[in-house]
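COURSE: Structural Biology Practicum
ASSIGNMENT: Worksheet 4, Part C
STUDENT ID: 0417
INSTRUCTIONS: Below are two proteins. For each, the amino acid sequence is given first, followed by its structure token string. Answer the questions at the end about the second protein only.

PROTEIN I
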Amino acid sequence: MLGKRGARTLGWLAASVSVLAACNAISGLDADYELAEGGTLPADDGGDGSSDSSARDGASADVSTDVTAPDASGTFRCPASPPTGQLFCDDFEVDVPWTRSEIVPTNGSSLSAEDKIGDGDSRGLRAHAAASSQSRKVARWHTVADALSVGTSIELAFRFKLNTADLGYFVLAAIQVNNHPSFGNAEYGLAVYKSCPGASPCLDDNNPQGEGNGHAFVGNVGYVIGQWYDAKVTVTRDAGGYKGTIMVDDKALDSNGETYFSGNPTKVEIGVGAFYSSAESGLTAEAVIDNVVVTQR
């Protein structure tokens, strides 16, 4: 894991995020959340992506390998030769192609790798979701696999900090398994909630498809604006389907572990940024992402 800080708690989503409804809008992992009278927090939904282009991609293997060691300066660097099991790595120090990006709304939102905003004043990825009246989607997405066999996992590890988090809800990072028979795609990842039981605001797993009566908090982690955290999102395929777990620093989120579906995926994608947000007018969110490492185990 790319490693440092976090904290945690239990309950139900409070009223400020209780009225969100989803609608698909543009191609890519689209999940527009609109405020709906009397509604509840909807499940994330996605669309299909475009053709894959990869960089620093390694062989797909279910061998656990530590790929997060810093260089002599103490700053993390992606290895020039990817170790076995590494599917993708981006430290944002050089331009690494991702499969695709999405920026909604385009007016005022931005998604760019910049100097001295990353961990330890390195380069990092800034995702700024501007004020709007619609769901914000500011993210980079990369296809990391076109299959996932039973008994294997995809792990997305990264560092992040939040500069602003005024929106009621948005996702920071997710693994998407495409080809869900009911939803088309199933995302599982780490989300930011403005109102939570216990510690507010908080981090918890995203609101997944099939979670029909509002988000079921079973332990959420508080955060501090401007502080760096390590996170690790893992999706595992077992005989019953796909299940997810999340770590924030050394805290294991009590992830729901829901089975998404049991079919073969046509594509596995990872995404980072500030996306699939609630649709409150006039509010913004901004996250900085660094040291993205994807491993198959």
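PROTEIN II
(use this one for the questions)
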Amino acid sequence: MDYTNAYIEGFSNLEFEKLIVRLGLTINLDREIIVFYHYNLKLIYYPNSNILRIKNSLHKYFNSIDGDSSCNNMSDFTLSDARCVAEILSVVYIDRDISDFKISAVFEFGLNVKAPIAPFSIIERYMAYQVHNSINEFTTCEPRKGKPIMRKSYLSDYDLKFYDKGKASELSGLNILRYELVFKQIRKLRTVLGEREVTLETLLEDYNWKKLSDYMIEVYRNIKKSPLLLNNTLDVHQILNIHIFGNKTLKQDLARHLSKSEFNALMKESKGIYTEISESEDDLHNIIERRIHEKLDILSR
């Protein structure tokens, strides 16, 4: 759990004034939109409609109030930590039940895992994410400076994001791979959780945390990855078939130049070769998947 966008309806001007006192701030109710900060959290109050909105990383907020001045999310952020943050916001400052904190997009659920090699060497081999018959290719994100460290797959309601967390935090020598699901539309989060309305209380239920964890594993497994074998024993025929199976554009080109029966036979062969190799214990992607499993178990505590 990371970036969260929550809002409270019916938050009166009197409640706002009490919140400002608790935060030790001096702010006048003389604007239509009032923006202020508490550590890394951005709070926005709309006096006319009585809506209070809270945005930013709850993970970074937890680290900040715990004395970490770096304000990053390199550490693990567990379910217990998230509940602690919810209680602080609910009881200490805002004085509203966590069921009043309604969740809207954008919402991020992510984790960090230790990679056996440089994270981008793994991430760059993510070819596409397949949902049913829809194939969504990964895109390398251009950095502001230096070499790329991030790749994304963009869908209508959510994105998949992977990057080198050590380099993003400007900490050398740390092979930390960051994996995030970015929910851009609240309807997608509702679907994953099976909930009509999502609140902070909803998110922090054991069974909903597990649903998000299970979905992260399901998504990762549906990513077509060019195998990265420790023993590096692939031959040219295998390499070509792997890329035939995982490359959307190449498939389209082949479909135009082959008969239907030839194309179907080639797809069957390439899928068989891809599946056999990708299930190998030597494939680094399987090592990453096991570490994602292990980390999700830790985060559920």
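ANSWER KEY EXCERPT:
Q1: DSSP finds twelve helices and twelve strands in the chain.
Q2: Residues 108-226+283-299 form one domain.
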